[in-house]
Structures are given as structure tokens and as C-alpha cells.
Amino acid sequence: MKLHLSNPSGLNGITGYGDRYVEINHRRHTTSLVITPQALYLEDWAGLGFEELNEDHFARLAQLKPEMVLLGTGAKLRFPHPRLSRALAEARIGLDVMDSRAACRTYNILMAEGRNVLALILQ
Fold first, then answer.
1. d(CA 46, CA 102)
2. Cα(23)–Cα(25) distance, rounded to whole angstroms?
3. If we measure between CA atoms, which residue out of 54, 67, 55 comes closest to residue 93?
4. From the CA atom positions of the chain, what is the Rg in Å?
5. Model confidence, pTM
6. Of 14, 81, 86, 94, which Cα lies nearest the Cα of 50?
7. C-alpha dihedral sign at 45, 49, 50, 55
8. Are 76 and 99 in contact (CB under 8 A)?
């Protein structure tokens, strides 16, 4: 699905998504990634699937100090064990889990509102 996002501010927006890809500012990515309005993290997250998620991943997200983390779990909604996301709870960072398509749409809405949002989109 193509999204039409006007982005005059130079922030990272999700401009499209589909089966096994996400477009960030009209550039297609086919691996898991982390996106914030100001940064895009690819290398450390490429190849990461839901089954590989561990406590260290969530601790690294907490270090980025977002207001909220959106976890896009791929084509279907799956919830990680609460012990994995403990670092986010301890840092008082919200976590919302959804399929990756919903995470893309929600990210754009929150980013457009000026929120300090981070999305981990799994492929």
C-alpha cells in the first residue's frame, strides 16, 4: 500500500508498505528496522524476526529514549513475553504491539502529531 505523506520537515515518514517491505521516504527496505522521526536504524536489526527478540533488543530501544515504542510483529499480531520488554516499563516508555502494517500507519499518525515515537518493524 502506498501512503501519501507530505514531509517538508525532513523527518522520516513511512511512505508505503506491503508484504515483506517498508518504504521510508520513498526508499524500499526489505529487512526489519527501527525508525524514529530523526533516525533510521537498519544494520543492527536486519534479519531479526519475532522469535529472536530478547531483553537486550528492548533495552537498546529504551536507550533511544522514545515516548512510545510501536512493535510491528510482521504479518500477524504476536505478543512478546512481558519479561522481554521490562526495560521499557522501567524507563516508563509505552509499548504498543500490533502487526507491521498497523504499526506503519500508527507511526505516521504519531509522527505527524510531533510525538517522540519509535517503531520496530519486523519482517
1. 20
2. 6
3. 67
4. 13
5. 0.91
6. 81
7. negative
8. yes
Residue carrying C-alpha cell 522521526: 37
Q: How far apart are CA 63 and CA 92, in angstroms?
A: 12
Measured CA to CA, the distance from residue 70 to residue 94 in angstroms comes to 8
Residue 32 DSSP code: -
Burial-class residue 30 by CB neighbours within 10 Å (0-12, 13-18, 19+).
exposed
Give the integer Cα–Cα distance in Å for 90 and 108: 26
Could you tell me the mean pLDDT of each successive run of 10 residues in the chain, 123 residues long? 55 94 96 97 93 97 98 97 97 98 97 97 96
Grid cell 527478540 in the structure block, residue: 53
CA-CA distance, 20 to 5, in Å (whole number)? Answer: 20
